[in-house]
Amino acid sequence: DQQYPGQPGTVTIQPTVYVTQDPLANPVNDYLCYSIFTTLCCCLPLGIAALIYSILTRDANHRGDQIVAEKSSRLARTLNHVALGIGIGFIILVIVLTVV
Q1: Is residue 76, in this structure, part of any structural domain at all?
Q2: Transmembrane stretches, by residue range (predicted)?
């Protein structure tokens, strides 16, 4: 076994280092229960969308991604409020139409 000039006898390989963030110390509210409620009781399509953003908020909280968590949380809350408004409006409409 002959060594060529300029080649080392051993090759050193550096270990791979992964940089991860810790979960947020103060996690952003994910509105998961609110999303489940609006999905089941108010407006199914908006409730499902709110549920998706609630889960995205929860994932961002676990990843430590504050910006994504805040954006997803705001959108989940807005979708939940709209779904609740539609659900209440629909209930009022049904009551008015049955009484009149």
Answers
A1: yes
A2: 34-57, 78-99
